[in-house]
Design brief:
Blueprint: E1 2-6, E2 10-16, E3 30-36, H1 38-48, E4 53-60, H2 61-73, E5 77-78, E6 81-83, E7 89-95, E8 99-102, H3 111-121, E9 129-133, H4 144-152, E10 158-162, H5 165-169, E11 178-179, H6 183-190, H7 197-209, E12 214-218, E13 224-227, E14 233-236, H8 249-263, H9 266-281, H10 289-298
Parallel strand pairs: 1-4, 1-9, 2-7, 4-5, 4-6, 9-10, 10-11, 11-12
Antiparallel strand pairs: 2-3, 7-8, 12-13, 13-14
Helix pairs in contact: 1-8, 8-9, 9-10
Amino acid sequence: MFYTVTFNPAIDYVVHTDGMQLGSVNRSGHEEIYFGGKGINVSIVLKELGISSKALGFTAGFTGRAIEEGVQKKGVETDFVHLEKGFSRINVKIKSAEETELNGQGPDISEKEVSMLFEKLENLTDGDTLVLAGSIPNTLPSDIYEKILEMLSGKNIRVVVDATKDLLMNVLKYKPFLIKPNNHELGEMFGVTLTSEDEIISYAEKLREMGAMNVLVSMAGDGAILVDEYGKVHKCGTCKGKVKNSVGAGDSMLAGFIAGLEEGGYEYALKLGTASGGATAFSEGLAQKEDVYKLLEQLK
């Protein structure tokens, strides 16, 4: 079974307008609403590619109910902890001549509610895959990723972590199956600026030496690099298309990679991940199966 955890889900309210003027009334051309968060995005794209998963995390209030219903309508099973107070956040994304975002903070989460999530995670069994993705609200302990991996360390579970800086570095001792920094995040983890593929590969190999089994590095328009558990380096270029949306592209790559491993080896997984990320980047929402496999043809 596949599981994803989203600690701070959101409603993304996307507003398109021809122009924005501060201090006056602005009117939108059209709007869109998406239900997401990094783990939820992974679950939705996995479902699109034929793999069922269960979405875990925290929801609160009327917005939390809307998120849960929206995710379920995408065919994804949910098992969220329903918080007693507050409401799940709304992120406002204004797309005009320049893009402007106003991201909500999210609800407070109590120790009791954190324990309820851990009880759900204790039900994972050998052979399951768990995806931990994204930042954590400031009301959660900063070491929650570590605590989850420590709790599961006695089980044969493939843990995938998509996070930044200390959240990622601190889990390496638990030997996660896969981590997915982008090239900028990889440099930040070591306090350096990476300017070449050789440097990216070198620092990805350092992460393997520190405990990660597989390191997938996304590089936006420069493609992606995978250093696999055997130390082999795989490279993949990008797909051709017009970029319309960057939100969720990395999550889609991760979902495509996981789905690709179910069908083939690391080389195929990297290509399917790249095609999935491209399918999201070239559309207004998350990747659709038909678009993913069209783009995959470009990578053969």
